[in-house]
Amino acid sequence: MAEKMTQFEYLMNCMEHAGDSGKPFEEGYFEKRQALFAHAVALEKDAARYRWLRTHTHGERDAAGRAEFCMPNPMPRSNIMRGSVAQHLDAAIDADMADYAAVQATAKGLMEKR
């Protein structure tokens, strides 16, 4: 089964198809190029937001001693993960995304068996 195309890949393929058609004006090449550019700009904005969050997130321990990621706090009590919060945050996000993908795949498999 083929992997699902990302929005960026879809827009790029549409633009390339229109550009290779021999009649780019009729195929809407420039509009498709503008859509791809707008999508890339939106991705850059999301990446900038994530970089800001990653830089400003800190870790603390709750009353039970569990580590927590905390949103930016102008006066944190302490930062238990000094210097490594970014890597821990990335690892937590990656693990959660993998878990979510596994759950989705399992659910899809169960639905197909019906």
Note down, in words, how this protein is organized.
By secondary structure, the protein is mainly alpha-helical. The chain folds into two domains: 1-55; 57-114. 62% of the residues lie in helices and 7% in strands. A two-stranded antiparallel ribbon has the order 1-2. A hairpin with a 5-residue loop joins strand 1 (58-61) and strand 2. The longest helix is centred in the C-terminal third of the chain and has 29 residues, at 85-113. It is flat and about 65 Å long.
Number of domains: 2
Strand content: 5-15%
Derived from helix and strand composition plus strand pairing, the structural class reads: mainly alpha
Q: Secondary-structure element sequence?
A: HHEEH
Distance between the termini: 19 Å
Compute the number of helices: 3
Tell me roughly what share of residues is in helical segments.
55-70%
Give the low-pLDDT segments. none
Fold topology:
Layout: H1 7-20, H2 29-56, E1 58-61, E2 67-70, H3 85-113
Antiparallel strand pairs: 1-2
Helix pairs in contact: 1-2
